[in-house]
Amino acid sequence: MKLIAKKAILPLIAFGLALFVGGLVIGFTDSRVLSKIGSPISFLQVFASTVGNAYLALFQGAIYDPNLAEGHSFLTGFYPLSQTVVNAAPLMLCGLSVAIAFKAGLFNIGAQGQFIFGAIGASYVGFHYELPIFLHVVVAITAAIVLSALWGGFVGLLKAKTGAHEVIVTIMLNYIAANFLLWILGTSTFLRPGRLDPLAPPVKDTARLPRLFGDNYSVNVGIFISIVVAFLFWLLLNRSTWGFKTRAVGANSSAARTAGISVQRITIGTMLIAGGLSGLAGAIHVLGFQYELTSDVAGSFGFDAITVALLGRGGPVGVVLASLLFAGLRVGGTTMQANVQVPVEIVLVIQALVVLFIAAPGLITRYLKIKNLESGQEMASKGWNG
Amino acid sequence: MSLELRAITKRFGGLVANDAIDFAVADGEIHAILGENGAGKSTLMNIVYGLLQQDSGTISVDGKELIINSPLDSLAAGIGMVHQHFMLIPVFTVAENIVLGHEKTGFLGKLDLATAREEILRISREFNFDVNPDALVEELPVGIQQRVEIIRALIYDAKVLILDEPTAVLTPQETDELLSNLKKLRESGRAIVFISHKLREVKAIADKITIIRRGKVVGTASPSAEQSELASMMVGREVDLKVDKEAAKLGSEVLNVQNLTIQDHTGRTLVNNISFQVKAGEVLAIAGVQGNGQSEVAEAMLGLREHVAGSVQVDGREIIGKSVVDCLDLGIAYVPESRELDGLISSFTIAENLVLDTHMSAPYSKFGRYFPDAVKKVAQERVAEFDIRAQSVTDTASSLSGGNKQKVVLARELSRPVKLVVVSQPTRGLDVGSIEFVHERLVAERNDGKAVLLFSTELDEVYALADRIAIMFKGEIIAIVEPSISREELGLYMAGISSDVEVSA
Fold it and tell me: What is the dihedral of CA A255, A256, A260, A261, to 10 degrees?
């Protein structure tokens, strides 16, 4: 318990500081606030209320909005939370994808491309085949995982056999995946009948993930799948010989090799799994929320995942919490822009600040005089050149 | 010029690295500080040199109290230091390295090297150093690089010269040359502080010996003191410098190396066509100066190297081309040269490190499942058996001292059923107590009928353990001799000079 508290304290401080600095940015970029700069008292008042309203809107957009509950049941106000959770599920899986690679000393920038291949596989099985309910979902998810695992495993193979750096390879493969998606959406197999824009046919009802709280809330079993996978992630790393080897290779590949562990095999295996996890994210996004394959189906899940893995310190619990946080920021940011006209980009600023404070714990330890923090520096620096 | 330290105390958190240390050296005197690794010798000298600041106590030179806040202050006071790890830039010439930080420039910032070059030649002549100011440092042997460090101190007029473990990286011949150079420096009236944990050298060179243990001065001794007396002061108890070893009971041949050749990835030959055998119940020591191909041979014994030709058979089974796992399964225990890099995973727990190469077997795993509780339980037994000093087996390996780290590696490797024990520099950087332990353990393995292949650059270790000694020089085994060979002769072999060749001074 003490250990968990110790691990959580740095991310929490980082998030608090990020909100604080983000608040300064909101205040000093707001024209209404700046117009009051002449009179200090009203300046501070407007400043505080603008920032307060912005963060209130952020909260309402991400978790609970009493306005939505008005005239309906109290629970209706949780609609934003449902949206947050739906977005958190794929982010969580992509985050685990980055995290598992990190455990093996690899830096997987390729979650985005792997996500795309998962989405393609799930979408194709989803709209092309007629299968019974449940089985359809299983087949679609399997197809997604196989396709994306191969896409990720290819990176591992290149790294193991030729020494090609996985960062370069995954970045390049992301471009290829994105353009492959554009191309395949234009082929007669994927193009929705009667449409000219890149859009695949919707997945059949039998392939859709069941929703949890009725049709009004998009939250679906995808979040359960993701949390179960997070638990399996822990189990694999800490209770299997494969996980032992993976951690050994990640912590000191030279000693692992001397102990008879095949670094090549672990590299390939880890990238297969990492690819599969991102692909599963793509499948859950398509089968549980989007229901169709579009050219920007992947959004920025694969890239946000890197930040999520960093914020979550590469552990399953951390990744689950971090993905919920980031999904909440993203979903709430839209509401913030709509309700109080604070640009949604402020959310990106907050996200970036969180990472900055975590990657440079010296900023916190030195200036706030907090000692004995579990440092995130190792992951931020060492992991980067894997 | 004399240097005097009074009641120097330095704490790092709760650890008292230096506890009220008094020490003095006068001109024309070599004063040795003898102590084990971690006794606080380097801390003390880093304080004198200005890299650390003392918590209390005073430093005075010629009776005048000094405040030393940086190496510049100590240089100005006439104190020069030769570090254990040289502070030289390999791609610079000797002269460039020496002017570094004190560059004099001429017209339009042109670097003035001519003066430095003259000075280097003058000092080099005065003390017979034989250093070429225009040579690139990376092309110089280690012994000469050390002279460059000494010249650097002298050129800035150091009257007190501090040498931190100066012989750690030298061959026996280079060590002899260093000692005679230090004697010349003493004659020139300089005060010399010689820091070492090697009894033989300290006895050979020092006028006075101060012994430090756990941050405290435990006494002074004269160089005429017995080695065993110095050792017991240094360690704090009686030390048995000799390893009790009964006569070898030779068994069948376990390791047979024939025409082993190893190249690096560029095709350069590192080990050239060597052959040797090791029988059950004997220790074959491969001696030689660091970097003559021993590391590569050691790695080849476990299938860790590529570009290997020839034959290496363990119990008649060929291991070249086999994977590391196959080699381990053949019954090879392997203690790598660098325990930090290859022997341990410092972020793993002690328990995990104890099963690095056995985690696939019962009771630690079954059908791919890994049982941390079983690992911990067995780890507790090993920690007791091998006297590993740790608070808990779930502490990370990084929390251990060097000696305990090595015990973890030994505990792991010797707890498997093995026939051949390959150990590389097994006591490098260890304290005397750990060295004793490691040596006893290796002799026990030998007496138990295992073949032991020892790679060592320490002559004391080679003599303590070896039943036969093979000497490597430039990738070849130039001789295999009995341990009755004299140190002098062995030293000549290590320098690549075989005894039947006339040696010219």
Answer: -170
